[in-house]
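User: Let's play a game. I give you a shape written as tokens, and you guess the letters that built it. Ready? Here's round one.
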């Protein structure tokens, strides 16, 4: 590894790996992109949870978790920040990043492993790059083992027949939130991309590639498809943050509405179910059911969002109140 350079270890089939890759390209941080191999998996096996991507620092140490890494890189490298300067807008950035990381991955997972066409496409791709078994990388055996492993996780992750209508509807609403607003110089909070933009890029880029969600995106949101493709390498983008009022409207408000109607009620139901020791949470959103075993990690995500909100100044919370109340987010955050 060259002196002063990072190594980003991942797979092009991972929304989180390409999220961090695009972010580092935009920030012009020197790094080498490396596909995860069995040898590298062994070298990074001490990290918990064992997920990709893994970022190897110039000193040789390995670290994971893209949100943590994004903020660590902010502290280590000056210029071209992906965190809006306005603290109130930066909170909304954190919330919308969380929405992408923790919810958008659900329809992505459903689409990938529901239909045989998508299963075959993704397992061949990921089975070559994201080798998880003892079978030889890229072999028919490895590809089939990867497909079976992912299908076995569908119930755990909520990709069920019961939940399919809501997951598909959430994807259509996400596309509808983006489509009127994206453009050559249009991002969530200005003419420059934020951490939340890169999180959405990661999820939507995979859905723009996998067969079924790709067809839906090209039909319903062609400009979002173009926007996602460009954001893969925004190293030449120069831009500014919008003033607060403008930054909190438009695309950001459209996504906040999805957070207020769907994501935060789901997270609150997950928290209640986990606290009561229930083995199943049930909600109904947009007239559609959703049920899942509660997850401890998502309890932590909600607690972190509430802590960040509570840490804002009274003035910043007051500035956010109108849009958070309009979108249904306020009641879940101001606890």
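Assistant: Ready! My guess for every position:
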């Amino acid at each position: 590894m060259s002196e002063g350079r990072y190594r980003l270890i991942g797979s092009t089939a991972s929304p989180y790996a390409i999220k961090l890759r695009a972010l580092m390209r935009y920030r012009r941080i020197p790094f080498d992109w490396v596909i995860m191999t069995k040898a590298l998996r062994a070298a990074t096996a001490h990290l918990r949870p064992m997920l990709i991507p893994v970022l190897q620092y110039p000193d040789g140490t390995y670290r994971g978790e893209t949100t943590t890494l994004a903020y660590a890189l902010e502290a280590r490298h000056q210029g071209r920040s992906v965190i809006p300067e306005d603290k109130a807008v930066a909170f909304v950035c954190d919330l919308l990043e969380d929405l992408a990381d923790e919810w958008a991955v659900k329809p992505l997972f459903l689409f990938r492993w529901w239909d045989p066409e998508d299963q075959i496409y993704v397992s061949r791709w990921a089975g070559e790059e994201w080798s998880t078994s003892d079978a030889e990388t890229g072999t028919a055996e490895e590809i089939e083992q990867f497909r079976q492993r992912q299908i076995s996780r569908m119930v755990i992750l909520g990709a069920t027949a019961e939940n399919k209508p809501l997951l598909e509807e959430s994807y259509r609403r996400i596309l509808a939130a983006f489509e009127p607003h994206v453009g050559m110089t249009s991002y969530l909070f200005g003419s420059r991309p934020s951490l939340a933009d890169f999180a959405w890029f990661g999820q939507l880029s995979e859905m723009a590639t996998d067969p079924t969600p790709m067809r839906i995106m090209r039909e319903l949101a062609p400009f979002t498809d173009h926007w996602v493709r460009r954001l893969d390498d925004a190293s030449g983008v120069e831009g500014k943050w919008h003033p607060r009022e403008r930054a909190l409207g438009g695309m950001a408000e459209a996504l906040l509405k999805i957070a207020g109607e769907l994501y935060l009620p789901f997270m609150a139901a997950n928290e209640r179910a986990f606290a009561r020791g229930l083995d199943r949470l049930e909600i109904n959103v947009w007239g559609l059911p959703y049920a899942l075993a509660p997850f401890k990690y998502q309890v932590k995500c909600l607690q972190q969002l509430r802590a960040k909100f509570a840490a804002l100044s009274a003035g910043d919370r007051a500035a956010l109140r109108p849009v958070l109340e309009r979108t249904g987010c306020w009641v879940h955050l101001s606890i």
